[in-house]
Amino acid sequence: MGNKLYVGNLPYSVRDNDLEQAFSEFGAVVSAKVMMERDTGRSKGFGFVEMGSDGEAQDAINGLNGQSLGGRNVVVNEARPLEPRPPRSGGFGGGRREGGGGGFRSPYGNGPRGGHDNSY
After folding, report:
1. Distance CA 19, CA 29 (A)
2. Do 38 and 64 share a domain, yes or no?
3. Region labeled Disordered — which residues (predicted)?
4. Which of 25, 47, 56, 102 has the fewest CB atoms within 10 Å, counting from its CB?
5. Are residues 22 and 53 in the same domain?
């Protein structure tokens, strides 16, 4: 058992200090972080809490998992390490496909996969 916890199904109104306050009932909170959308600043509905010890983390799981926080029943369990993602392909002029180059799709017909036929 580790002392890092995943907290899911959070209401979008919950912030870092709300998490810290809820979890402090079960021991020392080293850190509490609600994950936020980079572009909009809106909560993603989940976060992470690091407790002072494994025992405190287990107490927090037992005490808060399935309980209401801000009107929603939260999911609390041990955080898992981030799994490596496979490399991305395609995209902006990325990988080549048979029959033409990647990149932009031109609406004027001058690209590899043009949208219009410019002949009259």
Report:
1. 9
2. yes
3. 78-120
4. 25
5. yes
Through-space distance between the first and last CA atoms of the chain, rounded to whole angstroms: 71
Contacts by 53-56, CB closer than 8 A, 24 or more apart: 53/3, 53/27, 53/28, 54/1, 54/2, 54/3, 55/27, 56/3, 56/26, 56/27, 56/28
**Hey, what are 15's tokens?**
């912030």
The per-residue pLDDT for range 36-92, each reduced to its tens digit, is: 999 999 999 999 999 999 999 999 999 999 999 999 999 999 999 888 888 877 656
Q: Residue 104 domain-assigned?
A: yes
Question: Do 9 and 55 have their domain in common?
Answer: yes
C-alpha distances out from residue 119 to 2, 108, 110, 114, 116, Å:
66, 11, 12, 12, 9
- Both 62 and 17 in a single domain? yes
Give how far Cα 11 sits from Cα of 71, 101, 106, 120, Å: 7, 45, 42, 58
With a cut of 80, say whether residue 8 has pLDDT above it: yes
Q: Per-residue confidence at 120, pLDDT binned at 50, 70, 90?
A: very low
